[in-house]
Each structure stands twice: as C-alpha cells, then as structure tokens.
C-alpha cells in the first residue's frame, strides 16, 4: 500500500489526464492484493461405492468479506464439475485451513480428479491439485 501512496503524491504533483487515468486503474486493483486461492493438499477417502470424502487444504490471504476463498471444486480431467464445497465465511486468522466435502459421488470411469479453490474476487486461477482416487 505504501507504493500506492507514493504514486498518488507523484500524480498529484503532475496534473495530466493520463496520470489521473493511471491512478484510477491502479487504485481499482488495490483491493485485489490477496491473489488467487491455492489448493495445498487433498486427501481423498473412499466411503462407499463411487463415493468419496475430500479433505482439502486451501491457502488464501483472506481480507474479509470483500475478498476471501469462498469454495473449492472437484472436477474430472475434462473440466466437468463433480462437486462443490461452499465456504460460508472468510478465514482471515486461519491460514491455511482444511475443510471437507463428504459424500462426493464420482462416476465409475473417473480415476483422477482435479481440485481447485475459488475466491470471491478472482474466481479460479490459483494452484490446483491432481488427485488419484482410491480404488472402489
């Protein structure tokens, strides 16, 4: 944030439209400092026929309700979403954190899944994990 203050002072010193426009662009992105949410670890446990429990560790520099990791998704290798765990609140003081998605039914022909996290500003884009499922 310190670099933004310096930029503001410099731009106030030199009045021109392109500098004011640049300032607007920089300040618009200032609230997105937390970056994307990353999946650090996944543990998949077979709980029944084609049913799995996913324990997922996520890291994200949650800033509060305006920008936080708000879900993780289980996908097949073609990108089809097989399960979603919504995260109901920010984890500002709990990083990284682990949450579970139980009773995830995975089609019989799927042996590997991708787990990705979602945040309220960027959506997806952080580190994903590819997970080999335990055999039925």
Would you give an account of this structure?
By secondary structure, the chain is α+β, with helices and mostly antiparallel strands. It has two domains: 2-32, no CATH class; 38-132, Immunoglobulin-like (Sandwich), CATH 2.60.40. It contains two helices and seven strands, in the order ααβββββββ. The protein has helices at residues 2-13, 17-28; strands spanning 38-48, 51-59, 69-75, 81-86, 97-105, 112-119, 129-132. Strands 4-3-6-7 form a four-stranded antiparallel beta sheet, with no helix packed on it. Strands 1-2-5 form a three-stranded antiparallel beta sheet, with no helix packed on it. Strand 1 and strand 2 (51-59) form a beta hairpin. Helix 1 packs antiparallel against helix 2. The protein is elongated and about 40 Å long. The N and C termini lie far apart (51 Å). Residues 1-10 and 20-32 have low confidence and may be disordered.
Protein traits:
2 domains; alpha+beta; disordered N terminus; 2 helices; 3-stranded antiparallel β-sheet; about 140 residues; single chain; 7 strands; Immunoglobulin-like; about 20% helix; elongated
């Amino acid at each position: 944030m310190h670099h933004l203050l310096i930029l503001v002072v410099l731009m106030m010193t030199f009045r021109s439209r392109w500098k004011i426009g640049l300032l607007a662009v920089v300040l618009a992105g200032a609230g997105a400092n937390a970056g994307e949410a990353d999946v650090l670890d996944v543990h998949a446990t077979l709980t029944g026929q084609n049913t799995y429990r996913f324990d997922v560790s996520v890291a994200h520099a949650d800033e509060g309700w305006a920008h936080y990791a708000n879900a993780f998704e289980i996908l097949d290798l073609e990108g089809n979403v097989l399960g979603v765990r919504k995260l109901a609140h920010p984890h500002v003081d709990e990083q990284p954190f682990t949450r579970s998605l139980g009773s995830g039914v995975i089609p019989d022909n799927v042996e590997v899944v991708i787990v990705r996290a979602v945040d309220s500003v960027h959506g997806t884009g952080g580190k994903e994990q590819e997970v080999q499922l335990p055999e039925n």
